[in-house]
Amino acid sequence: MSLLIHDENRVRTLTLDRPDALNAFNEALYDATAEALLDAAADPTVAVVLLTGNGRAFSAGTDLLEMHQLATNPDFARGKHGFLGLIDALVAFPKPLVCAVNGLGLGIGATILGFADLAFMSTTAKLKCPFTSLGVAPEAASSYLFPQLLGRQNAAWMLLSAEWVGAAEAHEMGLVWKVCEPDDLLPTARKHAELLAARPISSLIAVKRTMVEPVRAEIAAARERENAAFAELMGGPANLEALTAFAEGREPDFTNLPEGW
Fold first, then answer.
1. Where is the signal peptide (predicted)?
2. Residue-range definition of the domain harbouring residue 69
3. Domain with 115 in it: what CATH number?
4. How far apart, in Å, are the Cα atoms of 78 and each of 29, 120, 135, 136, 173?
5. Mean pLDDT, 10 residues at a time, over the chain (261 residues)?
6. 7, 47, 70, 137: least surrounded by Cβ within 10 Å?
7. pTM (two decimals)
8. Cα(189)–Cα(81) distance, rounded to whole angstroms?
């Protein structure tokens, strides 16, 4: 099982558990996480979900070896929910979502913070949105949520540069709420999650709904724009060069692509 689930004091902790793959999301983990969020949403005994990772990574994003198969093999078997289904579950999740970023966070391991109600980050963790280094477009409504959360220029740097951002910088930008020493991360995140979980679930849901409802249409529109751009770019010259370079263990070279790429 690539996802660990633990219930305590009305907090359901979801731990991404593919440490050998830096908790990268393959189709199975996308499905398991989406299912877990749907189950937690419907469970009247769960007030808050706490999401973290096992090992030295929070999540390395989409499994690039599997992405290469998806890009090159039309018969590759997709999961029940997949990436888009996980984002659907995050958008719809009606209860507080607390993220504890324990290590490396790439791609969805960073953009998922746009859906966090509270985000905590280890001092040793770092984040990257690698879209331009993969020759693709933003994801998970980050093109809308990040400018709202971080301001335009911080969001532009995160989404355009494909560079690492450390914990102090992520905190200064407003991407995470609190930074903790590694050993303090989970206890601190859990303490805050349990404080929320002691409140009435109906009230928690009402507060989150009134905060999220005004931006639902913008999130949906951003996802449509991103998905269209991603579909156009995935499998294109830049993306195939990036994925081939990853599979071959080398740095991609985007300088000899066709004009406009």
1. none
2. 1-182+201-261
3. 3.90.226.10
4. 12, 32, 22, 20, 36
5. 95 97 95 98 98 97 77 73 95 98 98 98 98 95 98 98 98 98 98 98 98 98 97 92 90 92 90
6. 7
7. 0.93
8. 28
